[in-house]
Design goal:
43% strand, seven-stranded antiparallel β-sheet, globular, Alpha-D-Glucose-1,6-Bisphosphate, Chain A, domain 4
């Protein structure tokens, strides 16, 4: 199941990229994100192939997904693959500097590993699209706010 969305953000491409690539900034606009850990360490100079664990809130519980960075080309491209039990997802962000800000292209390809979830993939897809739109809007509001009053996004 593939979803493609775009969002114009009135902020420099470097700011928008940092808001997506930096988990500490992500937590400020994504309340579901608890933390991201790097079992093998975090080194942005060797980001491609880097493994990570995302801890997130879902249904009142803390869940985990295992991930790997598959593309890291600041400030233009970031892609990760994640898996948690009955699903896996490829999340691919493209960032383009345009007059007045940044155009973000988001593609998310979700694979369900159970017949039950595949059966309901249409309904799940609608819910996922709504959630992605909400998250892109939250990213827009956050990036535009910090672009107006710069903070250190190099954490």
């Amino acid at each position: 199941m593939s979803q493609q969305l775009s969002q114009f953000i009135e902020a420099p491409v470097e700011t928008v990229f940092a808001c997506v690539a930096n988990p500490e900034l992500q937590k400020q606009y994504n309340p579901a994100l608890v933390q991201v850990t790097y079992p093998e360490g975090r080194d942005d100079d060797r980001a491609v192939g880097r493994k990570f664990v995302v801890h997130f809130r879902q249904g009142g519980q803390i869940q985990q997904s295992l991930g790997e960075t598959i593309a890291f080309d600041p400030p233009e491209h970031l892609a990760v693959r994640m898996e948690a039990g009955m699903w896996s997802v490829l999340v691919d962000y493209r960032f383009e500097s345009v007059p007045g800000g940044t155009e973000v292209q988001l593609e998310m390809d979700t694979q369900f590993h159970s017949a039950f979830l595949r059966f309901f993939s249409g309904l799940l897809g609608m819910a996922q699209r709504k959630e992605l739109r909400r998250r892109l809007q939250a990213l827009k509001e956050f990036a535009e706010r910090i672009a107006q009053s710069p903070v250190d996004s190099s954490e």
